[in-house]
Amino acid sequence: MSRREMLRVGSVGLISQLTLPRLLQYQALAGTDKTCKAKSCIFLFLEGGPSTIDMWDMKPDAPVEVRGPFKQIATNVPGTFICEHLPNCAKIANKYTILRSHSHQDNGHTTGYHYVMTGMKADFADGTNSRKPNNVLYPSVGSVISRELGGRGSVPPYINMPHPMTAGGAGFYGAEHSPFVIEGDPVQPDFEVRDLIAVEGIDAQREHRREQLLKGIESQRASTGKAGTMATYYEKARDLMNSPAARKAFEIKDEPAKLRETYGHTTLGQCALLARRLVEAGCRFVGIDHSGWDTHFTCFPSLQKDLIPSVDRAFSALVTDLDQRGLLDSTLVVMMGEMGRTPKVNAQAGRDHWSAAQSVLFAGGGIKPGMIIGATDKNATAPVADPVSVEDILRTIFHQMGVDSSKVYYTPLGRPVPIVNGGRVITDLVG
């Protein structure tokens, strides 16, 4: 209902007890779709902590034990420089923005992952809770978007790949807002989404009879607890298996070989391509977990040969592909890890955990492109001013997607949990 229609209905008394505060609430709700910039978000998570001092925030004048062996190159944005091993990203720097002042105080992998995905500090020590998902109370960013926005197509609103994200669960929101997980590597020639494959030898009529039998059994059970959770999963699986459009969205082999090559024949590259197909089909939030970034030992060969090139091809291809298809304006792309790496190279020729300074990349979804926001000191030790927190990033993502991040929900025990606890929208970043 539009604002004008809401006012008309209110004026003739068709809505009882329409007080001014309630009217303003309805007006805000009516304007939500008009103010949001992004319909979907692709979240590239570089698990382990990317060495952003070697990628996006290089310090060429620092001592060698700080700057490392890599050189910087110019991008197509005057005055912006990034690593020499990111040539494809250098060519499209006018399409994304680098935030160099992200900083927080959690140096743990599992706890930092939990913090980034939920905006809440973990209630367990790092390394003691590695199960997936480990956010048993607080919902992840994808689950919040699933609950607030729902689906807009035949595919699930929230998807993880190529496995469950460690802190990507729904928390107390429940199974309805858990991610649909693609447990498979789309770079493999025999890749297929197993949950979409019908059981061999079971025709449609027999499948229908099985569904009716299952519904009869489920009606005799409690709809809460594990039984209710499993019933929700079964229902989601049935819906997907019965939707040709949904199954079609997962068929990455339909993509031209040349385009698949552009993304790179790596797990990250093919996951990024599949993510584009999924947001094109209506998915709200795709979370991609790309591991291997915990580079404590002899980090520079693996960064140069494997890690950085895979990011260079996947990110640049994704942004370019979305742009060429007219999807970039409506798709927010975010790339980050749970932390950065130490400014000083250690005795094992690697870099250790360093959450005090990290770069985060943003593209599309109403983000101002071609910018550098924030700065770190001469050794990339910490932001020189106005550090950006995890809460700031989450609030900005929700703002761009039209989610009211000031909402508060209550756990089954009655505990109030805000969607984001604090933080601010990064006004320099949004259009």
TrEMBL record:
<dbReference type="Pfam" id="PF07394">
    <property type="entry name" value="DUF1501"/>
</dbReference>
<dbReference type="InterPro" id="IPR017850">
    <property type="entry name" value="Alkaline_phosphatase_core_sf"/>
</dbReference>
<dbReference type="InterPro" id="IPR010869">
    <property type="entry name" value="DUF1501"/>
</dbReference>
<protein>
    <submittedName>
        <fullName>DUF1501 domain-containing protein</fullName>
    </submittedName>
</protein>
